[in-house]
# Entry
Amino acid sequence: MNRLFFKLTCTVAAVILAASLTACSGDSSNNKEPETTAAQTQATEPLTTTAKDLKKETDLTKLHKPDEKKDQFAGYWKITEGTGSQLKSFTLCFDGDGKSFMLIGTMGYRGGYEIKEKDGKSVFSSQMTFGLDGDFTYEFNKERTSVVLTNTADNNKTTMVREESYNSIPEPEKNPVIDEKLLGAWKDDTGAYLYFDKNGIMYANQVGVNFSFYNYSAKDGKITQTYTMKEKTTEEATYSFDGEKLLYNNYEYQRISADELV
# Structure
């Protein structure tokens, strides 16, 4: 796993452990490699267009945005009572397409979910390394603004309340230093994405693991990047170019169209 994403994953784990979540029994799962996805398979396919023809800008607000018309869980939620209530610093997002995220600050940690039939009952099945994990029967209030989940394995209950919105993208800083060669989207052979925009916002995504948004400045082969969890954290990265390839912290990325970001 890319060192950037391994470090972010460890940071999330530390925050959750600090919250004393007793359900966090997945220490060894952090070391598992994510399953190969279609996006990762595509990472090894050659580009059919030249780098100069690829689209370099996209609307970041559309990434990971839930479509609340797709299912009754799609949207943003807070755990307020019961199992998982120690995770009050996190917002849970269910996107309507089977993907879920634990959101904190400018970072999201990836999971999955589905609504299915089990033993003649409608069941909400959630797969998260941290947070909700298992099969749950559920009961919404009349307005569908809250839901009580009951774990089918142990009958423990969790109450979630719907949030109107959530924004992972930080406000652009004034006068960021931008290297125009970086602008646009990049992907490595493991399926990790990077994106740099002209306003000093950077997006990084390890498909199937996590994503994060940063404020960044770049000059003379060094990137200063800041993300937020409970507080702002600033890091430095190195970059250089080898023809049309980007070397970010010595990891090799190839330019792609910004439309391919996930």
Notes: The radius of gyration is 19 Å. The CA atoms of residues 110 and 208 lie 6 Å apart.
